[in-house]
Amino acid sequence: MNADALTAERIGLDWLRAAVAPVGAFGRRHDERIAPYGPGDEAAAHDEIAEAVALAARLVPDEVGVVRAALRALPEPTPIVARARAGDPLNDVDFYELGRFVDALDLLVRAWDSAGGEGPRRPPALDGVRAALAPGREQPGFYLADGFGPGLAAARAALAGAEAAVDRERERIAAGVRDVLGIDPAGDEFVVLRDAYDGPVPGDVRIVRETPTYRVLAITVVAPQRDAAFAALADAEDAARRVLSDRIAREADAVTAVTRALGALDRLLARVAFAQRWGGCIPELRTTGIVFADATFAPLAAALAARGHRYTPLSLALAGVAVLTGPNMGGKSAALATAGFVCACAAFGVPPPAASASIPLLETIVWLGGDGPAERTRLLSSYAAEIVRAQRALGGASPRALVLVDEFARTTGPREGRALLIAFAEALRSRAAFALAATHFDGVAEAAQVEHLRIAGLRHRAIAAIDGADLDAALDAINAAMDYRVVDARTGDPASDALALAQLLGFDAALVERARRLYDSE
Amino acid sequence: MAVAAGRSVIVVGTAKNTGKTTTFNALRAMAKRRGSAIGVTSIGRDGEPADALDAEPKPRVRLSAGTIVALPAGLMPRSPALAILEVGESSALGMMVFARVVLPASCEIGGPPTARAMRATIDRLRALCAGPVLVDGAIDRVAPLAGGDDAVIVATGAASGATVAQVAAAAAEVVARLTLPGRDAAHERERVVRVWGALDARDADELLATAAGATVVVDDPTRIAIRGALFAKLRGAVDLRCERPLRVVACTTSPVGRESSLSPRALVDAVAVATGLPAFDVVADLYAAGRDAA
User: Fold this and answer.
1) Same domain for B30 and B149?
2) Of A115, A395, B41, B213, whose CB is crowded by the most CB atoms within 10 A?
3) Which CATH architecture has domain A281-521?
4) Which chain A residues are closer than 8 Å to B87 by Cβ?
């Protein structure tokens, strides 16, 4: 599904991507391999959404959070097993990290079971890796323990014995230094002042440096047995690491399979968490219309919730091209955005937050109206940029496109603007595209012979003015008074409510009254 | 001493090859004699067999069994194997590994790249070994220890001067900077100037012109980026203090330099007098009391 930057911003696609982003590295890799669903992908999209909805109903929401936290905390074993598979010997930190991965996987599986998961999505265990590492994990962490190689214990005992022999020999020489020089050498190297002792040095003590006032001496322990024992242990440890690396290499496919399963689970749980937060339905994926009931434009609902306000879900039935009229602050733009958002959810395999939906998988969603990031930095005027985008939208208009038009041509003369919008709606209709055009121009739907919808508007106009500077109070008052339903424009009172809203928002009462008289006299 | 009290001890040098690693090894040996479990790490990279610049041999860091060490994965000795306890943050040489020494091992030690990570590494080491933590340090990177109960030992020696007097003077200047006193409301002047970030030569010039007699406060002693006469002049003109002081407890001396050697006895005495701190020559087993002891 294609959507440019302006469209992505306006229909909440950027927000949606962030909201359903996997939390772990495996999930992110898995996600990158899956393109949004488009025409022909209906079965796959349905299956993913249906599974998310089913799990959202079955899993305990708090426990889903625990599983996702476990997914986020998983260490990354992939580069390690890749090196093992290629025949590189692994090091002890690699083995430690693999052990950490196995432990983290156990925690995740327990969290999954606790959440009520089970079933085919239950991550498989890595018993082979666990068994391979077991000798080194009897204590927390990892140690290349004697159990990893038949010669390790003997080699370590030999080195420990040789080290003890070196220590004894060193102590024997130190005792000689104490006897002859009268000083206790704390380290292998020590200084003797000539005025304290200037005679011959004991055997096995070499002179490192001489000055007129002192000598630097060093205890020298020649220890070929210790060196040989060290070399033998080094060989034995490397051999043990090679054997263990080979065992890990044989488990590499299992590790890869687990990381893939975890990636898929991460993506799925992101959708489950979304559905648990916002509700979600399994949409019918049909090309006959864009129809949904009680849908939530989640980005706006989240913003309102953050300020303590309630979002009113809305319903829409769009068979082809429709014009949407209604009052300011009545939710026309939100209705457009919701249509795009619901369709985008399906394209991303996300349960649309609605009571029900029947929508197509689209190739393109385009938003017209307002400036996007590209327009804000260009030399074209708003009107010119809008015309360029409209022409591009027309080029991509098809039965698999949704064009969302938010007050097209509002920045030019109203007569010409209205005419352009009528012509544009006619062209979209002729291409059988889905389109919803919000406007304050009169008579566009009738002239273009497309459906006319309107926001129901204020339930009662006799409302007390509030302080327009208090945004929260204004939102509360409008929420209480506004009927956000999208209805057939042929029903009810089609007034735009602009004057009543101005009054509600605290605009000067005399000016509102003067405007009302002017409006009524026309 | 800090080692006996189970605190962290960081060893810093006044210059390269002033016996920092030798001091570090002497502290380890002392802890071993006392039977203390110790933790060991480094600010920077230490324990390499030869100096990276002049290829002269350097003392290896030899760790005895039971020591808990924090070092980057890239510096883990292949043999004898260490018992890995846990893995921490990343450094330029890989993740920081906390490991227990099973058989005595010689190795390079490195540390994490940031002050915050260094502080976390020291704290984690203290928790893991339940004993003192020894840090092979760098003089410009001791900020993580500022404000805590950790002790700093300054290693100085013939590499930082051609004569006993030069070495002692260099040590005195370093100690004067590192022992900058903390803020003290009772003695603070009427005017207090807070310097954020490093206090460099331009700041010093401005302070000398505009803030004579005031209390000047920096974050910690490592923020003092001026040396020599300028530092001495500023310290004489203002009441220079810091938010998070360091605890410098002693100096060590190394009479042997690449180019010259000095009298061990004369050097240890001169450094003690110049710095006012106890001075030790850990190789010659010499000691001179500092001002406090006197």
Assistant:
1) yes
2) B41
3) 3-Layer(aba) Sandwich (3.40)
4) 93, 96-97, 100
